[in-house]
Every structure is written in C-alpha cells, then in structure tokens.
Amino acid sequence: MPRPPTASTALATEHLAFIGGGVSITAGSCDRQRQPSMARAIGCELSADGQRLRLLFCPQRAQALLADVAASGRIAVAYSQPSTHRTLQLKGRDGRVEPALAGDAALLERYAQAFVAELAPMNFPEAMVRVLLQVLAAAPVAVSFTLDAAFSQTPGPGAGARLP
Amino acid sequence: MRLTLDAIRDCLDGSIPATLATCGADGTPNVTYVSQVDYVDSEHAALSFQFFSKTRDNVLANPEVRVTVIHPLSAASYQLRLRYLRTETEGALFERMKAKLAGIASHSGMAGVFHLRGADVYRLLEIAPVPGPVLAVEAPRRNLLAALRQASARLAASRELDALFDQALATLRDCFGIEHSLLLLLAEAGDRLYTVASLGYAHSGVGSEIAIGDGVIGVAAQQRTAICVPHMSAEYSYVRAQRELALAQGGGEALPREIPFPGLAEPHSQLAVPILAGSRLLGVLYAESPEDRRYGYDDEDALSAFGAQLGTAIQLLQQSAGEDEPESEAAPQPARGAPVQVRHYAADGSIFLDEDYLIKGVAGAIFWKLAKAHAEAGRVEFCNRELRLDASLRLPEVGDNLETRLILLSRRLAERCDYLAVEKTGRGRFRFKVERALRLVEVG
C-alpha cells in the first residue's frame, strides 16, 4: 500500500541540511516498459512554500529522465556524501518537470561550490567536478515532487531501512 | 560506431563509484551506488553485490538496468544499458573482484563494511556517452604493447634457467617500470609457492613461501588469473600478517624456520599474475608499488601475457637442463676455519647451519644428501640424474622442478654463508663446494 504523499518538511532537519549540502545527487525514473533512466542532479532545495523538493538538471544531459518523470511522475533520488558514504534515497510519485526560476543560477553555483569543497580533499580537481555539473543550455530545468518515502542507504547493516 | 566496454575500460577502475538505476515490478524506480563495476570482456561487466536490498529485488524481478560510470581523469560520463545474467560466488571473477573491493574498502574507510557477496554478471546492451565537453587526458606514461614486445625479445635471449629468473624481473623493471617484484614457483606438492628471485628489496627473501589461496599471490595461483589490489589493504598485506603472527607467537620459536617475505611493508598497489606453461601452473609473478592505483587493466593484461611467455621459457629450459654432459674434474677444496654444525630435521627436511636456518623441504633434503655424500665419500661432483632417481628426495614423476630447487638452494647458500656453494659445472651437473669442515647431526 503506497503511503499518502507527505510534505517535504516531514524530513528531519538533519536530512534537509544533508540533501542541501555538497553531496552527489543522482535521480532515476522509468518508462512504461519499466526501463530505468537516470541523470545527475546539479542542485537541490525546498520549494518556496516548503511543500516540495526541487532538483535542477541539464535538459540535454538528463533528457530521458525528464521525459520519464513528465510521463509517470515517478522519481527516486539518491544523495551520497563521498567522504563518509552516508547515503539517503528519497522517492516521489508526483514529479513534475518545470522551468527554471530566477534564483536557480545562484542555486547551481552554491551547489557546485559545496560539491567541489567536498571532493577537494579526495583529490578530485574542481575542473572535473565542473564537467559533471555542466549545463548545455541557456538554463537548467527543474523537477519538483512531494516526498513519498525516504530510506537510509548508508552501506552497512541498516542499509535500505525506511526513515520514520 | 557502437561502443563496447573496451572503449570505456578506464572508467571501470573503481576510483569513482558508479550509480545504478533499477525499476521494481510495480514500476517504482530505485537508485543506488555501486562500489565496483568490473570489466569482464568487451560485452560483459560485473557489478559488486554487497548487500541484500531493494536493488537486489528489482534486478531479480526486472533484469534491465542503467549504470552511469565516470572516467577518473576526463570526467566523461557514460550510461550503460545492461541486462543481468547471473551471480558468481566463487572462482576467478569473484576472487578478482573481492581483492579489488578490499583495496577500495580500506582506501575509503569501509574495511569490514564492504564485503563481496557475489559478482553480478551483466550483458552489455548499449553504451551512451552523456553529452558535453570533457577534460583532456594525458597520454599514458608508456605503451604497454611496445613494452611487451620488447620484454618478449629479452626473455627469448635467456639460455639458462638461473639467469632467466633474474632476467624476468629486470625486464619488468626496464620495460614496465616495475621497481619491486618477485618470482615464485609452485612447490612439488602443489600447496605452496616459494620465492626463487626478487628485485627491489633490502632482503631477497629467496626461499620464502606463500600458501596457495593466501593473499594476492596465493589467489592468483589458485584461480590462475591476475589479481590486483589497487590500494593499501590490511587484509592483503603479507608483511603485516607476518608481523601479527610473530606477535601472536610471543617472540617466536627458538629456531625460526620461515624465511621472511621480502615485500613492501605497506604496498599501495599489488598485482600478481600466474606463470603458465599451456594450462600448467608453474608459479606467480608479483609486482607491488608504494603508489595507489599503479596497475590498471592494461597492466594486468600485459603482465598476464608476459607470465604466459615466461612459463613457456621456463618449461623449455627445464627440459633442456636434464641433458648430461661429460664430467669435469673437481678442484680440491681445503677446509678452513672451525667446523660447522649442520643439523637436519627429518620431519620437515629443514637444515640449520649452526644456529641459522637455511632451507627446508625438497631443497633441504637435497642439501642433506649432498652433505652426507661429501662427509662419507668426499664427493663434490654431482649430476641432476642421480638426484632425480633418489627416492628419498620424494621428487615427483615429472622431475622438472629439480633444477629450480637447485637454483633456490644455491641462492640461499650464497646469501647465508661464504663457505658452501652449489655451482653449475655443465648441463645437468653441479659442484658442491665445501670450504669448512661439516659436522652432521640428524635430529628426530
């Protein structure tokens, strides 16, 4: 039985801080034939009303994922901190593809700087990280969704446990 | 042109975790990180299966998955469309991935957490580059095919087994830039390997032994495949295991019978490849480095090919070593200095010169036979054939390990004393040089 959608703010503050930090973000969806699609997200924040999570993508690099989310609303997002392997997966059933907002350029840069800072001690140069976060268009596009389920995926015995 | 896994093999070196997207039976997507995506061949990849999870359920219910891998230098991303085929929980692929994962785990602080349950084998359906410019990558420091060609020519020039062993390691250094290496041969019983040559260490370690299945070297022998650990891993450190064993034994036995393994205390890269003659395992070549990720897939391939060539060369020289030539005259050797007590422990064939451990096993038994023949009849000239026919030495039917045992004995003597030597005097003949009186003591 799927649980009814709950507000993004149901996530504990520590998790909200985590997903808004310099963590690696990968989103997945699938098509009608249950073929998965995936893409790297390049920014994440709560929507202005606090009810939805917003993720940014390069429209060219995330083409298949964006099409699948638009068609099915299904989305899974894994957030992982490279230095600690702490990993969280959030899922939504009402994903929408939306145009970028005025503040998204600043969000992109804020996220890029945080991710660069996270990876620098692990000897990944900034130029490499910038390749991963590039946008091949005038502006990114956004996907927003309300939180349906959250799981801890940090490697170890508790991996896969649903968060309360 | 359709891309195969050959084109993106560098992305599978484990330095950047891959991401995996699956879809459940009910259409719910799932995304997770994968520690290791291993190259199997141009059309197959293996993913490390470490935890029972939603991903596991999804893959079993719906075998088509997407994996994103990233080039460790250019940051180029590729999306792989893969179809799950099977899970392997033993054998060459499993052991290869287990060793690599151990290195990755300890490098990322996950030793004891990352544990390989299986190697999930997938068929490649498609590789799609993620669009966009990437960083330029510098050319590799050497062309390994050119190095291999040069190395082959050098091996072919060796005429003596003894010289071939040293030449093989010098070739690794000169052609492949490998500064620390060992050559180990399989013992007659097939349960262990013994070091017959080494390069780049303070102590040669000739005669030191590794059990089949133990660490990188032992597993390479057991599985007959290249085994590589890309980072410092306590689990795969011989020197550390040796030190811990010595501590556990509380200062050790009064008379240690092990020759210490000569390797680096903290190798950050280890690579072992089997030395094969056809399908027969002769030994293992081992290379290590203080650098992380020193050996990649191309090094594994190049050294594996070199190992096969070396195996053929060893086999050829072992066969020709059996041919006898006319006897040469022995030079008289006057004894000098105080007599040396030579003790032989029948239980394991171990030999001690006064209080110093020399050798055991077949090489020990050979030494004891030579020492007795010298004491009883003053003999110094010997031929391989008489050793081969001596039932007490317990040499196997195919006695081509005799020559390598004599080389091992001769190297140990050269390292441990200046008054005893085994010197080749012709094909299949050698001289036992004794320059001090020997007092033989049989123990047990």
Q: Count the E strands of chain B.
A: 20
Count of helical stretches of chain A? 4
Chains forming the largest contact? A-B, 39 and 41 residues
- The CATH homologous superfamily of the largest domain in chain B is termed GAF domain
Per CATH, which architecture of chain A? Answer: Roll
Overall number of structural domains of chain B? 3
Q: Which fold does the CATH topology of chain A refer to?
A: Pnp Oxidase, Chain A
Question: Short description, anyone?
Answer:
The complex is a heterodimer of chains A (about 160) and B (about 450). Chain A is about 25% helix and about 25% strand. Chain A is α+β, with helices and mostly antiparallel strands.
Walkthrough of the structure:
- The complex is a heterodimer of chains A (164) and B (444).
- Chain A is α+β, with helices and mostly antiparallel strands and 164 residues long.
- Helix content of chain A is 24%, strand content 27%.
- Chain A is built from 4 helices and 9 strands, in the order H-E-E-E-E-H-E-E-E-H-H-E-E.
- In chain A, strands 2-1-5-6-9 form a 5-stranded antiparallel sheet. Chain A has a 4-stranded antiparallel sheet with strand order 3-4-8-7.
- Chain A is globular and about 40 Å long.
- The radius of gyration of chain B is 26 Å and the shape is elongated.
- Chain B contains 10 helices and 20 strands.
- Chain B has helices spanning 54-61, 92-107, 144-156, 161-176, 215-223, 238-248, 297-321, 361-377, 384-389, 402-416; strands spanning 18-23, 29-34, 37-41, 44-49, 64-70, 77-88, 118-129, 180-186, 192-199, 209-211, 227-229, 269-277, 280-289, 340-345, 350-353, 356-359, 381-383, 420-426, 429-434, 438-443.
- In chain B, 31% of the residues lie in helices and 29% in strands.
- Chain B has a 7-stranded antiparallel sheet. Chain B has a 6-stranded antiparallel sheet with strand order 10-9-8-13-12-11, with helices on both faces. In chain B, strands 16-15-14-20 form a 4-stranded mixed sheet, with helices on one face.
